[in-house]
Amino acid sequence: MASRDRMGTTAGALARRGFMDSARAGRLIAEAGLDPERHADLIGALSGAVDPDLALLGLTRVLERSPDPEEVCTALCEDPDLRARLVQVLGASVALTDHLVRHPEDWRELHGADAARAPEPEELRAGLLHIVGADPNAAAPAADPAGGGPEDPAHALRVAYRRRVLRLAGRDLTGVSDFEQVSAELADLAAATLEAALAIARFQAPDDAALCRLAVIGMGKCGGRELNYVSDVDVVFVAEPAEGVEDEQAALRAAARLAAAMMRVPGETDSEGMLWQVDAALRPEGRNGPLVRPLAGHVAYYERWAKTWEFQALLKARPIAGDAELGAAYAKAITPLVWEAAGRPHFVDDVQAMRRRVEAHIPPTQADRQLKLGPGGLRDVEFAVQLLQLVHGRGDETLRAGGTLAALAALSRGGYVGREDAAGLADAYRFLRRVEHLLQLYRLRRTHLLPDPDTADGEEQLRRLGRALGFTANPVTGLASVWRRRVGEVRRLHEKLFYRPLLNAVARLPGEEARLSPEQARVRLEALGFVDPAGALRHLESLTSGVTRRAAIQRTLLPVMLGWFADAPDPDAGLLGFRRVSEALGTTPWYLRLLRDDVRVAERMAWLLGTSRYATDLLLRAPEAVAVLADDADLVQRRNAELSVEADSALRRHDTAENAVAAVRALRRRELLRTAAADLLEVTGVEGVGDALTAISAVTIDAALRAATMRVEWERGEQACTRLCVVGMGRFGGNELSYASDADVMFVHEPLPGATPEAATRTAGAIVRELRRLLELPAAEPPLRLDADLRPEGRSGPMVRTLDSYAAYYARWSAAWESQALLRAVPVAGDAALGERFTALIDPIRYPEGGVSDKAVREIRRLKARMEAERLPRGADPTLHTKLGRGGLSDVEWVAQLLQLRYAHRIPELRTTGTLRVLDVAAQTGLIDPEDGATLEIAWRLAARVRGMIMLVRGKGGDSIPMDLRERSAIAGALGYRTEEDGEGAAELLLQDYWRVTRRARAVMERAFYDD
């Protein structure tokens, strides 16, 4: 007993080797005459099969039927390759085991050099034609039983087919051939089988064969050379009369009979079983259409009547049997129609809708086990790849591959799919197809459904599958885990690629525009409105020339983006900016991938670059910031706390004040770009722009103030002897900064205990000078200029004062205009407690008890009138000046401020620095007619938006709507105005709106401001 255990044939030893029914395994080994010592390698190989029990049972059955079992055992012991192939086949396929039992000599198919070699397609064709007694070299081979062929050629063909599958499975299961080689060989074997079946049909109906030429076009997986072990073989038939035959209808009827007879051969069942069905449902008109058509009939149908899915089906079409010349003519005629199909209306939507319909018809109980049709299954990969091929293949012939993996590789090489995405899809596809092959190989039946793990038989099948896929420790759990991960990855990538908006954009382009040849590009550039087509063409050539992946992606993007550039006010500037940004980012991997995978980023980028010099300049200083265009959430103003934390980090990272403030200014530049993009893309309104610009300016000044303080302290070798606070004034204080605004400020300081006022003032002055220097240093970042002209005594007064000095000044000398200016004063940086005390100091001045005096009102009115007469630039049109012109910002703001001066003492809600908030409260409390308030608000918003857009479009400040028609049109376009059908231009529409709105606002202003 101990000796048998040592040799590994006791029940315990066999169980440890992987045999589930070890007692039966022991009996079978004995019945097969296997000696534990002499056949130790064979028994060991059996234990390594995907199902050791199945393999042992199969070997026993084969040996029982073999005329010389000893010869088989000897060969298995002496030839390790034969042993590995046979054992793996016996353990994985009951159907092939049955074949070996019926044909016990066929184990030799797995022996020798031929068993390890993949045959060429022509070798398979010639071999199967010989089997049925046909001459492979004949123009139209026909079976000939009388001439030495088999008595039953159809049966002989089925046996020969099984032998070829047996040999292929031996290579597949031992890893000699990979999935792609196996699929291609199965397709070639199916094609050879159809050729032999057609030869049988010609033998059975020689009169029909003489009347016609018949070509068999492979479709689907057979056409793409990626067939399964068991799958319907999809075909289409094309026929023409034979030479000298004049009756076309008779020829077509004969061809239909031949085709039907050919289809029956692999589909009929005898002792060898059925091979597979031949399915001609993909022909024109489907099952309702004639089985065969002449070439002209096919072309006419596809030109006039074919639906979108039919062109998708034709993607893999190739001649596989029958008349080779006719098959080639079919391919030549149909192929151009396939690659023009993506230009059909709603093409992409139709393909996407068809995929959704397929999913909708999956029984709910099968959805999570479907290899083929379910979410994350094979169809997800195939549909995504085919849609990308059809859309982009119009202009790129390298994508015109029939096989899924070959097409996916071409899409990746061409930059249409990211390398990682392509690799992920390819790996998942190989895994799913491998699972599919193993499932079908078991009984050689057509199935795409994973076994149900809740059944005993299902769990056994899953265990066999898991072992075949290399999950030896825990096959069922390992397979389930990888299955879920692969399916999830496929679904994620399918949704990313299949529903990519770029597909719709590319598909909508006329075919010639998608290719973008130099000649076509020049014509299109002129038609799109590029002022300098030659210059634009140079930019295109620079971006798309070469064989790099970058150039390939640009060739896909730019035909679409040209239309988006043309929608912008300045297409030429947009394309130039795009070239400069692309060159600045160079080979940065994420950039073009972002544009390709998120078409909204590309569209937004085209609009920004073709609209705004200001945004373009900011983007060129930091091209990586283009990533913020991907999501509206990234364009929304960041919280002040986040900005402050980032500014603090910048100060800590750098050892000099200049470098630290440069980093903070870079932060400000990024926020300026974020705000400009949100403004131009209408993600935020004029109030949001003011809030964002004010917030980043305050954070920048606060950080720079700390850096300046540290610099002064370092230079003097002592801590600063005073507290300093920066007070925002004007638009800065009102949270209404625009892109061109300086930051109006006042500086207030308070000596620390023990410090003399003179020393404290000198220190404060030094800090303020250093602050201004740091903020205005020449650099790539936009400077932030501080304007202190609103301080007491204006430019003649000291730059910085103590809190007591402010108190003394306002007590004795404060004028009405200063009370008005203080309405928008708010601490923005520096010592917060000092800022609170300053606010408490000025509140009684700007919100005087009992309201402002009549004398002060008259003074304010005179000042407003004088400002209109003196401060409006010479030659400026008062109806076009957004700030000081009639009905402009100043008119609205002075109305609001006068209301505050008169009534804020008794209406606390008026104690705010924001213009629109004042108007809102005034309307609610009856200080102003609500309709008048709305008129003023509309005018303020429009003037503020136009003023901001002038800066964005021109890249430089300006308060007047430009006289230059091109600039005015660009500003109008940026604001959303479009030339109407009657020819009225966008610039004229803008002026009409502006004049109407500001005229009404001026009328309200004159009543509310000048009338008592």
From TrEMBL:
Residues 1-502 are annotated as: Adenylyl removase. It comes from the Bacteria. It catalyses: [glutamine synthetase]-L-tyrosine + ATP = [glutamine synthetase]-O(4)-(5'-adenylyl)-L-tyrosine + diphosphate; [glutamine synthetase]-O(4)-(5'-adenylyl)-L-tyrosine + phosphate = [glutamine synthetase]-L-tyrosine + ADP. One of its GO terms (biological process) is regulation of glutamine family amino acid metabolic process. Keywords: ATP-binding, Ligase, Magnesium, Multifunctional enzyme, Nucleotide-binding, Nucleotidyltransferase, Transferase. Residues 85-330, 604-839 form the Glutamate-ammonia ligase adenylyltransferase repeated domain. CDD domains: NT_GlnE_GlnD_like (cd05401). Residues 353-498, 879-1007 form the PII-uridylyltransferase/Glutamine-synthetase adenylyltransferase domain. Its cofactor is Mg(2+). GO terms for molecular function: [glutamate-ammonia-ligase] adenylyltransferase activity; [glutamine synthetase]-adenylyl-L-tyrosine phosphorylase activity; ATP binding; ligase activity; magnesium ion binding. Residues 510-1012 are annotated as: Adenylyl transferase. Its EC number is 2.7.7.89, 2.7.7.42. GO terms for cellular component: cytosol. InterPro entries: GlnE (IPR023057), GlnE_rpt_dom (IPR005190), NT_sf (IPR043519), PII_UdlTrfase/GS_AdlTrfase (IPR013546). Involved in the regulation of glutamine synthetase GlnA, a key enzyme in the process to assimilate ammonia. When cellular nitrogen levels are high, the C-terminal adenylyl transferase (AT) inactivates GlnA by covalent transfer of an adenylyl group from ATP to specific tyrosine residue of GlnA, thus reducing its activity. Conversely, when nitrogen levels are low, the N-terminal adenylyl removase (AR) activates GlnA by removing the adenylyl group by phosphorolysis, increasing its activity. Belongs to the GlnE family. PANTHER family: BIFUNCTIONAL GLUTAMINE SYNTHETASE ADENYLYLTRANSFERASE_ADENYLYL-REMOVING ENZYME, GLUTAMINE SYNTHETASE ADENYLYLTRANSFERASE. This is Bifunctional glutamine synthetase adenylyltransferase/adenylyl-removing enzyme. It comes from Spinactinospora alkalitolerans.
